[in-house]
Amino acid sequence: MKESIKNKMGLSQSIEDYLKVIYVLQTEGEKATTTNIANALEVSSASVTNMLKKLAKMNLLDHESYKGAKLTASGKKIALEILRHHRLLELYLKEVMGYSWDEVHDEAEKLEHHISEQFEDRIAELLNHPTHDPHGDPIPSKDGVMPEMAQLSIAEADFNTPYIIGRVKDQDPELLRYLEKIGVLPGVKIKVLEKAPFNGPVTVTLEEEQQQTIGHAVATEVYLVEA
Description:
- This protein has about 230 residues and is α+β, with helices and mostly antiparallel strands.
- Helix content is about 40%, strand content about 15%.
- It has nine helices and eight strands.
- The protein has helices at about 5-10, 15-25, 35-40, 45-55, 75-95, 105-110, 115-125, 175-180, 215-220; strands spanning about 60-65, 70, 150-155, 165-170, 190-195, 200-205, 210-215, 220-225.
- It has a six-stranded antiparallel sheet. Strands 1-2 form a two-stranded antiparallel ribbon.
- A hairpin with a 6-residue loop joins strand 5 (about 190-195) and strand 6 (about 200-205).
- Helix 2 crosses helix 3 (about 35-40), helix 3 crosses helix 4 (about 45-55) and helix 5 packs across helix 6.
- It is globular.
């Protein structure tokens, strides 16, 4: 069986976490600055600066002060491999192990660095080669192709236009439990009825019958695709 690039390089769990976070920041349209990386990983800015220098020497990213980090082709390939592990594990934990969608992220974080490529292949086969995880985030394919990602938030959506909830960006368990309770889940039909001014609450209908009012902060974390 062909060995993965991350296994060949013998990378630490910490390095893999950095590469994954940088990739996620970039795909969400945010700069991979020292501050953003430090906040995402809950580490000091000094630790981030030292790691970025190390990763640049390993040719896994390019880094310019005040401009943020950008992954090289090798760095991106490793990040996609870790993301694939993580998101497949999330779906496996939910669909097979019976975890709730607010529990799977933390469990997958612990496991993603340790599964073999054979185990990854078995999970993908068992789940019929899925394209998205329980939160609607795309699962990279084996060869590193990323499926389409929902990018239009409820806060930005047009009025009275049929959409389907594509994904939830925030992994906060409390938020996920709240969204599940009110029925805001990936795959649910949704229309925006009203947006209060000055970042006020947003009123929506779910499945064309249930009306809900959600705060603006929550509305910016839930992304839609056209129905």
